Amino acid sequence: MSLAHGRPYLAIPGPSSMPDRVLAAMHRAAPNIYEGDIVDMTAGLLADLRRVALSTSHAAIYISNGHGAWEAAIANMFSRGDKALVLATGRFGIGWATHARAMGVEVEVIDFGLNTPADPARLEAALRADTGHSIKAVLVTHIDTATSILNDIPAMRAAMDAAGHPALLAVDCIASLGCNEFRMDDWGVDVMVSASQKGLMVPPGLGFVWVSDKAVAACRGSDLATPYWNWEKRIFADYYYEHFAGTAPTHHLFGLRESLTMILDEEGLPQVWARHKALAGAVWAAFDTWGLGGDLALNIADPAHRGHSVTAAKIGNGGAGRLRQWCETQAGVTLGIGLGMAEPGSPSYGDYLRVAHMGHVNAHMTLGVLAVMEAGMQALAIPHGPGGIAAAASVVAQACKSA
Hints:
Layout: E1 9-11, H1 20-26, H2 37-52, E2 58-63, H3 66-77, E3 83-88, H4 91-102, E4 106-111, H5 120-129, E5 135-141, H6 153-163, E6 168-172, E7 191-195, E8 206-211, H7 213-219, H8 231-235, H9 250-267, H10 269-290, E9 296-298, E10 310-315, H11 319-331, E11 333-337, E12 352-356, H12 363-379, H13 388-402
Helix pairs in contact: 1-9, 2-9, 5-6, 9-10, 10-12, 10-13, 11-12, 12-13
């Protein structure tokens, strides 16, 4: 017998769970796209995108997913033959480098593997070695969605300043914006990219790029910036349609208006960060307890280097794959695959999974996912330590008490 009938739940790192309010805001007739309310609403959205990034920089909206936001940043930052230094801590750091290389950028990658954050000392050394300042920008993920590694962005900026290198600092916040603390201006970030489908709680379809004045000036004249990707036209639009290089993504904008109101004006950004931290702690506590009696472990040993939006973990002997299948078919919960941790078809591919706790997620949703996972381990006879749910519940209780 399956107990999956009912409302399914996606505990994958995007598209994340979307509030009914966001979906309801999108369920309306198309507006006039030439004048009126949509124009004023978009001006407010651009201002609030700066608020959620804690930045006075410029913001551009693209009709794309996160990969499109990567390409927008690459197209504007570089000309053919320019050089990028990429600090890779998982599949998505490597992916950003691959896109840049395919677009004609010379790319140097420092690969820190799948279990450790980027080392600012190695960044500083690489920049000091670049005496001719051929590196135009440093690209790094804040949280790599595949490994769940959290990189220390202020430390990256400090390393760049210590080296006295003029390169721009570009940060992928696709898996972190609206989940982990991020302060674009305070941390000295020049270019930032994100997307709608994770912490911002809107369906996939919008990519965002934030650009400092320094980056606008440094990148003016890039020969990769085609009319569609050119951020200057979107940032300094003379006409409304130029913000989108054509027809606006109207219904996504209505959804984004609702989600930013929820984040910024109702819950408040510091409270959003605190909620994600507490729910991540509950997931970690469950895994730590389960791991006392079986081959289960979080991908990142040090909690300081774990993102608060998604948790990557290992359950040996194919346990992760079997548990994922059981949770979906028997209980209606979909867990994330272990993206980039092992090659599909390899013996260890089934050892990895990810649990997302990003965006529109609360205590009962996260505890429910963990309870389903524990039931699945019992049903599949996957060895694990007892008390994982109690450990997670204790974290939630303590977070609510301290609040």
